[in-house]
Each structure stands twice: as C-alpha cells, then as structure tokens.
Amino acid sequence: MAENVSESHKANDMGIRFGSKINDVEGKTPFLIGVAGGTASGKSTVCKRIMEKLGQVDMDHTERQVVCISQDSFYRELTPAEKAKAEKGLFNFDHPDAFNNDLILHTVQDILAGKKCEIPVYDYRTNSRCDNQFTTIYPADVVLFEGILVFYFPEIRELFHMKLFVDTDSDTRLARRVPRDIKERGRDLDQVLNQYMYFVKPAFEEFCSPTKKYADVIIPRGADNTVAIDLIVHHIWDILHGAVSHKFGLGAMSNSSC
Ligand SMILES: Nc1ncnc2c1ncn2[C@@H]1O[C@H](COP(=O)(O)OP(=O)(O)O)[C@@H](O)[C@H]1O
Ligand SMILES: Nc1ccn([C@@H]2O[C@H](COP(=O)(O)O)[C@@H](O)[C@H]2O)c(=O)n1
C-alpha cells in the first residue's frame, strides 16, 4: 500500500507513510475518532501508538496531520466548596457533570469545521485549569479525542466518524492508576484507593462501561493489542487516501470537491 504513495515523506514501523498534509487549510472536515475506556485503560497510550504508526510524532504543527486531544482538558472549574472536597479525594471527577460539556461540544464542532482551537490546560495536582494557559489545536486530517466519557452525551457521540473503546480489565487499570496518580498527579495511596472505591469504580459501571455498546471497534488489552491497533491504523490510512469512503464526507477528500 505504502509503495503506491509516491509523494510520501514520512515512514513508520508499519511501512505506512503519509504524503503531504491533505488538510492544510482551515475549513476542511477532519476525520474525528473518539477513544473511550475506563481510567488507565490505555486510551492515551493507544492514541500515541496510532500517531507513531502514522509517523506523526516529533513534528511541527505545519506538518502534523494527526492530533490528539483529551477530555480531561475540559474538566469544569470547581466552586470553593467542591475544591475543598477534591483536595480530600471526595469529589466525583468520574461523573458526566464534572466536565464542561458545552465547551466540549463547541470545541468539537469547531474542530469539525476545520477551525484552529484553543484547549484549556488542566492540572490534576490543583484540580483546576492552569490560569491563562491554552494548547492550540491546528486543523489536521485526523483528530483523536480520548476520554472516559466521550461517548456519554449523544450530541457529542454522534459527531465521531469512528468510535473506539479501550477495554482493559479493571484490576489492571487500578494497578496502573495507583502508581500513575501517586507519581504524576500528586496523590497519596489512601486518597487514590478511596477515590477509586467511592467514585471511580461506581461511575465506570454507571456511566462509562455502558457506552462500550456505541463503539465501532473494541480494543481488548489496550496498547498491548498491536493487531487491533495495526488494523485501525490501516483503516485510517485507507480513509485518508480515499480507498474507503465514509458517510461524513471525508471519503470525498480524494475527489475534486475537497
Ligand atoms: N500496555 C501497557 N502496558 C503497561 N503499562 C501501560 C500500558 N498501557 C498503558 N500503560 C500505563 O498505564 C498508565 C495509564 O495509561 P494511559 O494510556 O495514560 O491510560 P488512560 O489514558 O486510559 O488513562 C500509564 O502510566 C501508562 O504508561
Ligand atoms: N482533578 C482530577 C481530574 C480527574 N481525575 C481522574 O482522572 C480520570 C480520567 O483520566 P484518565 O487519564 O485516567 O482517563 C478520572 O477517572 C478521574 O477520577 C482526578 O483524579 N482528578
């Protein structure tokens, strides 16, 4: 497949190469992929692998065709009372209302309109956004949007062209979350375990797990599942290069209307 792409300049471990940026002007619809799954299931790692396999790491935004954003950037600001609870691990960050869902919807709509967006920067140590800090998301051909509840609200869910669910067993997820939250998110062991028992696990069962049924592809074992990741990468490549069309219009990228 890659051998047919004469203009290609990026190679990777699958031999898949991207050519020049297809969607290098504002206003073109990117292929939007939602990546849901429980906490520490490997959503970010799966997205990273997809980007690596598409040869999309360590590049400038003018060249980058695939970008990844996280639902965690959209946690809403807490009231002082909620902040005090959060500091003791007593705030439910796994409930759909913990996010600024209007901002998610508008941002995703802007992304689909091919607009440049500013995404808030979130700090897990303070449980709040970093003041006046934003990440600029430039128009791209493929946008990965990962998060525990990206398929929860129908208005947002319906906007994805492809929906992936990373399905990693809950013991493994807890075993990964504990060291991560202690090392990277400034938590202590008691806090992580209490938050997990009282909020994370019940909310996973009530809000996240039921969204698995909306997924087009379920990825058992997350980033360990290289076969699933390779298949997804090939599918993305085919869509981007017009080999497979899809009903949202991006398949038309290879014809003259785009
Ligand atoms: N397949 C894997 N094997 C070992 N560790 C992993 C694997 N996938 C993810 N991790 C680790 O588990 C933690 C959570 O992974 P991450 O991709 O951030 O999950 P999520 O985005 O779903 O919260 C991270 O520390 C990550 O390095
Ligand atoms: N201030 C916060 C915000 C979120 N969390 C937890 O993060 C989890 C979602 O992120 P993943 O990378 O694990 O998908 C979610 O389960 C929240 O409990 C937090 O602890 N503190």
Automatic annotation (TrEMBL):
Signal sequence, renumbered to the chain: none
Record's keyword terms, sorted: ATP-binding, Kinase, Nucleotide-binding, Transferase
Span of domain Phosphoribulokinase/uridine kinase: 32-227
Gene3D superfamilies: P-loop containing nucleotide triphosphate hydrolases (3.40.50.300)
Pathway: Pyrimidine metabolism; CTP biosynthesis via salvage pathway; CTP from cytidine: step 1/3; Pyrimidine metabolism; UMP biosynthesis via salvage pathway; UMP from uridine: step 1/1
Enzyme class, first EC level, given as a word: transferase
CDD domains: UMPK
Any one GO molecular-function label of the UniProt entry: ATP binding
EC annotation from Swiss-Prot or TrEMBL: 2.7.1.48
Pfam families to which the protein is assigned, alphabetical: PRK
The reaction(s) this protein catalyses: uridine + ATP = UMP + ADP + H(+); cytidine + ATP = CMP + ADP + H(+)
Any one of the GO BP annotations: UMP salvage
Keyword Kinase: yes
Keyword Lyase appears in the UniProt entry: no
Similarity comment text for this entry: Belongs to the uridine kinase family.
PANTHER family according to UniProt: URIDINE KINASE (PTHR10285)
Designated name of the protein: uridine/cytidine kinase
UniProt source species: Zootermopsis nevadensis (Dampwood termite)
